[in-house]
Amino acid sequence: MKSKEDKLSISSSELGDYMRISQQSASRYLSELEGKGLIERSREGKGQLVKFTEKGLNLLEEIYLNLQDFIEEKGKPLVIEGKVTSGLGEGAYYVREYADKLQKSIGFFPFYGTLNIKPLKAHPNIDKYTAGTIRSFKKGDRTFGETEYMPVKIIGDEWEEDCYLILPKRTHHIDEFEIISRSNLRKKFGIKDGDLVKVRIG
Amino acid sequence: MKSKEDKLSISSSELGDYMRISQQSASRYLSELEGKGLIERSREGKGQLVKFTEKGLNLLEEIYLNLQDFIEEKGKPLVIEGKVTSGLGEGAYYVREYADKLQKSIGFFPFYGTLNIKPLKAHPNIDKYTAGTIRSFKKGDRTFGETEYMPVKIIGDEWEEDCYLILPKRTHHIDEFEIISRSNLRKKFGIKDGDLVKVRIG
DNA sequence: ATTACTAACTTTCGAGTAT
DNA sequence: TATACTCGAAAGTTAGTAA
What we know:
30% helix, homodimer, 5 helices, three-stranded antiparallel β-sheet, 31% strand
């Protein structure tokens, strides 16, 4: 397998030997990876052809980028490209509830809405860029969960704006960024769903 | 943890939350990693300070380099720097036994000895550069195991030489390269133990 | 607060096989 | 030859605690 696009012809016992596990476990591993949609298989007379799916390659790349981020000590900021989406439309409600706490943390009173951005590809984990945390709190009988935030620059075709990215601690790994801003960016810059923007972190 | 040299202050329950496992398992993981010499710990009042050891960082780097090799489709050859060592001194004996088979495979009759080279740092797995295999065989009651080989260039300060690297399939992962050559390289170039050389593969 | 032991409980593994 | 199922054994996980 010289290229990541290649198919690999391997039998379950060869894989077992290579991994120093039994043929049975190797067979089971392959079938689990297939079940998770990470690889595709096709039976051959002797052995089977195995190749990564798009999803599998993305997972590998995510792991790779996380390691890269850790091992190569770059001062370079992280720039992630993504597509503007509508999210769940709850942004406005939550920002309203968190607004006064946000103001204390980030220094401005937020626009009642979020810009949701879905990254186009795998990217390293951004947790470590966290600048601060808003502790969980109650209003009446409703509990609002802990949320981290970090400064980011949102970059469009002909504009850019300093904003904050919020990272609710509970709903980890939806992989959609929620951006808090001073004003309505959709109106200010004429942004609409599907537009490509960059998020510069750090 | 912004740098790989940093210590991380974390409690076993924080780690458990982060990994979505129990506090007990997080504690066990840390203690296993410590047992394997991959991390160092020191108890703090609240939590513990954790940092990677040299060995741990090397393991991470090896994983990283393997992924890099797979994901970034470089045609660049792999160059690994290492130190000449004496190995176990068995080289001469084994080369003698494999000599006629080696001649058929690599096209020249090998010098009865190997140059052993110990890589200075982590490097990607070189299995995929294998050019051919010498099947296991018997001589009298002695069995000689399967061995793979690949062409490499050994590069010293003021010289270089085309050689072959042999990869005995049984004794995987000693992480010392054994080099087969046309003549006695130690004599030819005045190489001695501890000298730095480069191995160019692919 | 911690870390980490013990004792259940749960999951994973692989030898024996079926196909 | 293959792959892959079953099921008893081995390994991993965690609730309950001790320190």
